[in-house]
Amino acid sequence: MAIRSPLKNDSGNLKEMTSAEVDQIIDQIIYQYSLNPSVALSVVGSGGSLSSIADTRMQAGAMSTDVSAFPNEAATAEPSVVTVTYDKVNETTSGGTPTADTGTTFPIFYNSGNIQAMSLQDVKDTFLHPAIDLLVAGTTTSQQAGTYHINSASSVVGSTSLSGTPIYQDSRADTTLYTAGEIGETLDQPTTITSYYLHRVDGSNTAYTAPFYINATNDLQEYNTTAFQSLLQGWIRKTASDSTDGYKIRYSLGISGSGNTRGSGMGDTRLNGTGNYQTRYVDTDDYRAQEFPDGTPTTIATYYLRINKS
Description:
Structural class: alpha+beta
Oligomer: single chain
Number of helices: 3
Order of helices and strands: EEHEEEEEEEHEEEEEEHEEEEEE
Distance between the termini: 18 Å
């Protein structure tokens, strides 16, 4: 591992950048990544590539009838579990083709008193891998720009919503809709408790000092803005998508897994009662009974979006 100190212009002289100035370039790399993430999540109707997650709720048992007396509780069908599967998050990767290393493509540094261009491995160690480490952190600041998180709000300051469509909804039986006077009630009468949305963290275009490189005529030249930013974006996109050094960015959905959680956990809750037994007399040969969902809300599972490097 070789972390280099790139050379900059200091009043007409070459001078090594400080660690703070290197950090500014790393922040610019993150901003460049946010403009065109190479590991992208999107919201789809179904069939997303990330793991499916389940919402469960209780529904009423089937109605029982008798011509002479109310069916007793033991003979009446119990409430049952309804499961709705969500697979709305899709991941795609597109590393592209970054600027090729000709041997003089990257910033220069002092090596035992000589001026030398950084190798690709130097660039990875100095800039790209530290940028990936910041991008996969568990926070959602501008240093994670271009990466994703979950929130129960459809709009989050500092982030862009990927869709007005929730990627997951926690629902429960709406007990206010079940009444004895309506037996046989519709079995499944849900209400949405919480919706969860996918967001991408916005970038911040911070200032930085441009380093020098060796140009086509073997002169030392300061990078112009367009060329340097294109160089940075190409290589951070390639690294995040296709790294063979353990610095690929990948996402997962589930209860457990590797990596850092991003944003809100998505709770699956349902009522924990054993059934609210109710009866309805219709006429002399129509006695009805049904069990409705009841109890208190209980968390069955909590799902997380995770970001990982591999």
